[in-house]
Design brief:
Blueprint (H helix, E strand, L loop, with lengths): L20 E3 L2 H14 L4 H5 L15 H16 L2 H15 L23 H19 L2 H17 L16 H4 L2 H11 L2 H14 L32 H18 L2 H17 L16 H4 L10 H18 L2 H18 L14 E2 L14 H5 L2 H9 L1 E4 L2 E4 L5 E6 L6 E8 L6 E6 L5 E9 L5 E6 L5 E4 L6 E9 L4 E6 L3 E6 L2 E6 L2 E6 L26 E3 L6 E3 L8 E6 L14 E7 L13 E2 L2 E2 L8
Parallel strand pairs: 4-8
Antiparallel strand pairs: 1-5, 2-20, 3-4, 5-6, 6-7, 7-12, 8-11, 9-10, 9-12, 13-14, 13-16, 14-15, 14-21, 15-19, 15-20, 17-18, 18-19
Length: 621
C-alpha cells in the first residue's frame, strides 16, 4: 500500500499515527482484501441517494453513509487510494446538497422527523460522524459547517423546554442519545460552548430515572438492566446502542473530567467482559445482552452480531486509551483474532450479520429495502481499531499492544524523533516474535511489551543480554519494560508460552491455544463434529466437567493447514460413550482449526462447532 500523510484528528490520542504502522503477513492480507473488495468497491452515492427524498417513517437507511465514512475516510488516508478519495468526495458533496434551510439532513417524512419509535436521530449521529471524519482529513470547512448546522437543528428540537431526546427512538432513547459522541467531537473541534451544553443535556437524558439509567445502574450487570420484557421501547438490553452511549460518555468525560461518567463506563465494560463476552470474543443473542458468557454452550438465536463486535472493540480501545490497562488490549485481541476475522467472508467483500458458535455462517439479510445491512456497513471498522491500538506513544516509551508482523514507527516525546522497528512473527500461530530496531543512529527509549493474561510465561532476550523470564502466576495482563539505548540492528526477541487450555462450562468443553479459540469443522471429514468427549483427558486435580479451565494431558499439534484454513491442529481425544466397546473406547485423532477459519465457505459443507459435549458419569444409589 502507498501511505499518505494523515491528520486523523478523530483517532485515539496517545496511540501512534496509523500511517506509521504497516501491517504485513496474514492480517495485512485480510485487511487489504477488505479495503479493496469492500470499502473501495462500495458506491457511497447509493447510500446518499436516500437523502434526496423525505418519505421514510421508521427505518434506519440514513445510518449507512456515516458508517461507510467511519472506515472509508481513514482507509483513504492510510492508503492514499485515488479511487476511494474520488468516491468519498462525490458522496460528501451529494449529502451536503440535500441539507434543507433549517439544517436537517435526513430522509424522514416531516410529520415523523425525530419522532418516537424511529431511527432518525440515530441516522443523524452517523451523518455527523461522517462529516466530521471528512473534515478531519481534508480540512474542508463546508463539511464542518454542514455538521454544525445539522447539530444546531437537532439541539433546537430537543432540550429543556423542548422535546425530550430519550423519548425519541427506541430502547429508552439509547439509539438517539448515542449522538452524544459526535456532539462532543463538534465541541472539541469548534470550542463553541453550545455543543458542550447540549452534550451535558444528553448525559442527563441517558441517566434519567425513566431512561436507560446508564450511570446510576452501572453496578448492575448489563443483563439485569431495565427491561419491559424485550420490547422496542422499554428495554435497555440492546447491546450495540448501549455501548455507543458509553463511548459518548467517555468522550464527554475527556472534556469535563466527570469521574462518574468514566467509572460508569469502566464498570459496565468489566461487566460485559465477565458476563457477556464468550470464548471467541463475541456477545449477544438477537442483539441483546442475555447473560451470554454463562449461556454460550447452548444454541441461541442470532448470536454474535457484527455491529456489537466492532462496537465492543471500539469501547475497549477507548478504555485502553484512558487506563493504559493491558486488560483491554487482551479483550481487543480476543475479539479480533476470533469472532471479528470470522465475520468476514473469504475475499473480504462482505461481513456476516451473525456468527454462531455452532452451525454455519451466511450473508446477513438486507435492511430497510436496501442491498446492505447494518453489520456489512460496520464491518471494516474492526481493522481500524486493531491498527489504532497496535502501538501506543507514552513519553519516551513505545508500547506494543498487539502482535502481528509489521513495520512500526512511533514518536519519542523528549526529542520529537521517530523510532522504527520491524516486527516479524507468525503470531498467533506461535508465540515467538522478533523486533529489530531500524534507526540509523542510537536512540534511548523504552519498549513495553504486553504480556497477555492467557500466557503463563514470557521469555525476553535483547542482543548480547541474558534471557529474562517473566512468569504470570495470577493470569493477569501486564507490560514488560525494556529501557535501553538502542543501536542500529539491535534485536529483541521473545517467546510467549502458548499452551492449549480446556474450558469447561455446563457439561461442555472448548479449547483455546493462546488467544485463538479452536473449532471442529465438517470439511475435515473426521467424524461427528459434535461427538461427545470423555473427561479423563483432564489431569488429576484439574477441573473436569465442572466450571472453569483446566490443564490437560492432550497435545494440540499445529499441522500444515488445508486449503481454505489459516491454522490446523490435531489432537488425540477420548471421544464417544461406548464403554462396552474396546474399539470405540480408544482415543481418536481429530482436527481442529482456528475459529476465524471455521465455516468460512458460508455454506453447509463447513458446518462447525466450538463447544463439545462432555460425557457425564452419574453415581446411582
Amino acid at each position: 500500500m502507498i501511505l499518505a500523510s494523515t491528520m486523523l484528528a478523530s483517532a485515539l490520542a496517545g496511540f501512534a499515527d496509523i500511517s506509521g504502522i504497516r501491517l504485513q503477513g496474514y492480517v495485512a492480507d485480510r485487511m487489504a482484501d477488505c479495503i479493496e473488495n469492500h470499502v473501495i468497491a462500495t458506491d457511497p452515492l447509493y447510500f446518499t441517494s436516500i437523502f434526496h427524498s423525505r418519505g421514510e417513517s421508521n427505518w434506519w437507511q440514513s445510518e449507512f453513509w456515516g458508517k461507510y465514512m467511519h472506515s472509508a475516510v481513514p482507509f483513504w488516508a492510510y492508503t492514499g487510494d485515488a479511487r476511494l478519495k474520488a468516491k468519498i468526495d462525490a458522496s460528501v458533496a451529494d449529502i451536503i446538497s440535500t441539507q434543507d434551510e433549517e439544517g436537517y439532513i435526513g430522509n424522514y417524512l416531516p410529520e415523523r422527523r425525530y419522532g418516537s419509535n424511529c431511527w432518525d436521530v440515530w441516522g443523524t449521529k452517523y451523518t455527523l460522524l461522517g462529516l466530521i471524519h471528512y473534515y478531519d482529513e481534508t480540512g474542508d470547512g463546508k463539511a464542518l459547517e454542514a455538521a454544525k448546522r445539522l447539530a444546531d437543528y437537532l439541539a433546537g428540537t430537543f432540550g429543556p423546554g423542548r422535546r425530550e431526546l430519550r423519548k425519541s427512538g427506541a430502547f429508552l432513547g439509547m439509539p438517539s442519545c448515542s449522538v452524544l459522541e459526535p456532539v462532543v467531537w463538534l465541541y472539541r473541534r469548534t470550542g463553541e460552548d453550545r455543543y458542550l451544553d447540549f452534550a451535558k443535556y444528553i448525559r442527563d437524558e441517558l441517566d434519567a430515572e425513566d431512561g436507560a439509567r446508564l450511570v446510576r445502574d452501572a453496578d448492575v450487570p448489563v443483563f439485569g438492566r431495565v427491561t419491559d420484557g424485550g420490547g422496542w421501547m422499554g428495554s435497555s438490553l440492546k447491546a450495540y446502542e448501549m455501548m455507543s452511549c458509553y463511548q459518548g460518555l467517555l468522550e464527554l468525560y475527556d472534556e469535563t473530567g466527570e469521574s462518574a461518567l468514566f467509572e460508569a463506563a469502566l464498570k459496565t465494560a468489566r461487566s460485559i467482559a465477565e458476563t457477556e463476552i464468550n470464548i471467541v470474543g463475541g456477545a449477544t443473542s438477537g442483539e441483546h445482552w442475555y447473560d451470554g458468557a454463562n449461556r454460550q454452550t447452548d444454541v441461541y438465536n442470532r448470536q454474535n452480531e457484527t455491529c456489537v463486535i466492532t462496537t465492543w472493540m471500539r469501547l475497549c480501545a477507548k478504555l485502553l486509551q484512558e487506563t493504559k490497562d493491558p486488560y483491554w488490549a487482551d479483550q481487543i485481541e480476543k475479539s479480533f483474532y476470533n469472532i471479528y476475522l470470522a465475520t468476514m467472508n473469504r475475499d473480504g467483500s462482505e461481513f456476516s450479520q451473525y456468527c454462531p458458535l455452532a452451525g454455519t455462517r451466511a450473508r446477513g439479510e438486507d435492511h430497510c429495502r436496501m442491498h446492505t445491512n447494518c453489520c456489512n456497513a460496520n464491518g471494516p471498522r474492526g481493522f481500524l481499531t486493531f491498527l489504532r491500538t497496535y502501538l501506543a506513544e507514552d513519553g519516551d516509551t513505545l508500547r506494543l499492544n498487539h502482535y502481528t508482523s509489521a513495520l512500526v514507527e512511533g514518536k519519542i516525546a523528549s526529542t520529537g524523533k521517530k523510532a522504527a522497528f520491524r516486527i516479524y512473527t507468525l503470531y498467533p500461530q506461535d508465540g515467538w516474535l522478533e523486533a529489530r530496531y531500524m534507526g540509523d543512529e542510537p536512540m534511548e527509549l523504552a519498549l513495553e511489551l504486553r504480556h497477555p493474561g492467557w500466557c503463563p510465561q514470557m521469555d525476553i532476550h535483547v542482543s548480547g543480554e541474558e534471557v529474562q523470564s517473566f512468569p504470570n502466576p495470577d493470569g493477569k495482563a501486564s507490560y514488560h519494560r525494556i529501557a535501553r539505548v538502542w543501536k542500529p540492528g539491535d534485536i529483541l526477541d521473545f517467546t510467549m508460552q502458548m499452551p492449549a487450555v480446556a474450558h469447561f462450562r455446563n457439561d461442555s468443553v472448548a479449547f483455546t491455544r493462546g488467544p485463538v479459540a479452536l473449532a471442529r469443522d465438517l470439511r475435515f471429514g473426521d467424524g461427528d463434529i459434535g461427538e461427545i468427549v470423555r473427561p479423563e483427558f483432564a489431569r488429576a486435580g484439574s477441573l473436569s466437567a465442572a466450571e472453569g479451565t483446566g490443564a490437560f494431558s492432550v497435545d494440540f499439534d499445529r499441522v500444515r493447514a488445508k486449503d481454505g484454513f489459516w491454522m490446523n491442529f490435531t489432537a488425540t481425544l477420548p471421544t464417544g460413550s461406548h464403554s462396552e466397546s474396546t474399539r470405540d473406547w480408544l482415543p481418536e485423532t481429530v482436527r481442529f482449526c482456528d475459529f476465524a477459519s471455521a465455516g468460512n465457505t458460508w455454506s453447509g459443507d463447513s458446518a462447525y462447532r466450538v463447544w463439545l459435549p462432555v460425557l457425564r458419569f452419574e453415581r446411582h444409589r
